[in-house]
Amino acid sequence: MTTDVTDAAVGTIRSGFLGGGFMARVHSRAARAAGATMEALASSRPDRAGEAARELGIAHAADDIDDLLAGDSDIVHVCTPNATHFSLTKRVIAAGKHVICEKPLATSLEQAQELASAARAADVVAAVPFVYRYHPMVREARARVASGEIGSLLTLDCGYLQDWMLLPGDDDWRATSADGGPSRAFADIGSHLCDLLEFVAAERIVRLTARTRRVYEERGGHAVSNEDAVAIIVEMASGAIGTLLISQMAAGRKNALTLELHGAEASIRFDQERPEELWIGDRVASRHLFRDPQTASAGVARFSRVPAGHAQGYQDAFNGFVADAYAAIAGEIREGLPTFADGVRAVQLTEAVLLAAREERWIDVAVLPTSHGSEKERL
To answer: In this structure, are residues 118 and 106 in contact, taking their beta carbons and an 8 Å threshold?
Structure first.
């Protein structure tokens, strides 16, 4: 028997959306699954908003952000290009509305911290969709690490590989316009990897060094402004060391997010392209553990939305995240909800990676943003 992660109370929540592209589709499906009322959508142009609202079944196509914020939405999902996140999210918070902002939270650490502080001051729920936390087997891995099953962490081997920018003709606004920000591969997918690493290991990266690579200087007739791939060496708070490889030019890899932790007693591995299982290994044997809410660790069964043997995936994880964010609006804080503090952390790591690559040195990132009080960083 499964446990639904939705909350009946969220049926009264009215959801608004900024942006009408792919991520708005994902967010709106998750909001609908959580039982919310699909209130309004604004996009870059009124005609685009009208088209997207019709396609997504959203009641009102707003003329612009002013029209949307003047309406009855309780929460606004910011699903627009990266460089617009700061200004739009700041306005959402100023209007007193709860907010889910796509990552990166901002394209600079200063702006990300400003948003986190503004959300605290306004006392609004403010979340960032690091949704891979919501795979049941990620939670299972986290529970087993926390129980001491793998022992003290020694090393780690992690990666996030895609191939959608492999060819010289592959183009995207993230690569060839100011809308993408100073980082692409790391800010886009490496941030997910680092969030997952720190979440599952329950410890932080304290030092790192990195190299970046831009393979093509031009795509689609436009200059490329950020990196295609990043290689990172990290040191964790416990002293564990490891490697992270992030690339959007790895042929054949569509969304290969992998996390492998090596402890003094055992190793554990999660592969997002095989999200229903974990690999667990020790000196004498290795095994695959499959998702089963009946045998899951304490607190993990609620993330299983369907019975064992029926595959769950990305949209299920996203649905779980939005359900938890909406539950927070009703006053129920569910463990592991990624907040703006986590968004600040991702921007801090992004800036550290770029600085390490630019200056070819180790960077300390030991002082972390927190959920309460002021954030301080040490780049």
So the answer is: no
- Residue found under tokens 């967010």: 27
Amino acid symbol at 275: P
Kindly report, residue by residue over 250-300, the tens digit of the pLDDT.
Answer: 999 999 999 999 999 999 999 999 999 999 999 999 999 999 999 999 999
Q: Distance (Å, rounded) from C-alpha 270 to C-alpha 128?
A: 22
Do the Cβ atoms of 268 and 260 come closer than 8 Å? yes
Max CA separation in the chain (angstroms)? 64
Cross-strand bridge partners of residue 363: 208
Using an 8 Å Cβ cutoff, are 247 and 162 in contact? yes
- Could you check whether the bond before residue 104 is cis, i.e. omega within 30 degrees of 0? yes
pLDDT digits (tens, 9 = 90+) for 190-223: 999 999 999 999 999 999 999 999 999 999 899 9
Token digits of residue 46: 């009124």
What is d(CA 232, CA 136) in angstroms, rounded to the nearest whole number?
A: 27
Q: How many CB atoms lie within 10 A of CB 43?
A: 25
pLDDT at site 1: 33
Pairing assessment for the beta strands 256-263 and 277-281 based on DSSP bridges: unpaired
* pLDDT tens-place string over residues 311-369: 999 999 999 999 999 999 999 989 999 999 999 999 999 999 999 999 999 999 965 44
